[in-house]
Amino acid sequence: MAIIEFPPVDSADENGIVGLGGDLEVQSLILAYTEGIFPWPIGPEIPLAWFSPEQRGVLYTDKFHISASLKKFLNKSPYTIKYNHNFAAVIKECAQVVRKGQKSTWITEDIIQAYINMFQHKLAYSVEAYDKDNELVGGVYGVCIGEIFSGESMFYKKDNASKACLVALLTQLKQKKIKFLDTQMVTPVVKSLGGTEISRQLFIKTIKKSDTKKPREYFLGN
Length: 222
Fold this sequence. Notes:
Elements: E1 17-20, H1 26-34, E2 38-39, E3 49-51, E4 55-60, H2 68-75, E5 80-83, H3 87-95, H4 109-120, E6 124-130, E7 136-145, E8 148-156, H5 161-175, E9 180-184, H6 188-192, E10 196-199, H7 200-207, H8 216-219
Antiparallel strand pairs: 1-3, 2-3, 4-9, 4-10, 5-6, 6-7, 7-8
């Protein structure tokens, strides 16, 4: 049964946890993201927690910057960028990434299936990088509920492949006048592109003004 209500986000604890348990049905995830909340399994003891941190990582589309070395690489990029071509492959590759400070992936089988369901409902997206042999070598996936865009995870198998995807995504969103990409936290890659933190209050104020009805195809091609 889908979640019909979350606790107020300002009731989150010092770690940003709003609630524990529940389900990952499409309607539950729609409700969460439109209220500034996202799921993040903590571990076997707490398989599902819901977060709305006091400080939210974002990448402003009119302020993101590309380093000189990355710009030089992208100008001669060996990758072909595609959108929504193989979402399942991207999220499964992201689940295999061993991240610093984490003993296991938060992208559980339940998360994988939930976001594949979101993708099938055109509420999630993937940006993919393919090499000259048409091998998937990098990707980003996330949620898109109209103008609300959130980046969930990324992976790469060749140099700068995930960065190429992220830059392509930000460029598309900028063209469509999307104010920012929600990155949830500021990772080193996000920081290198100009990522910053904003308050929970400002983040939620902004997404509440967002149109949640525009189709994914309006923002992302192929």
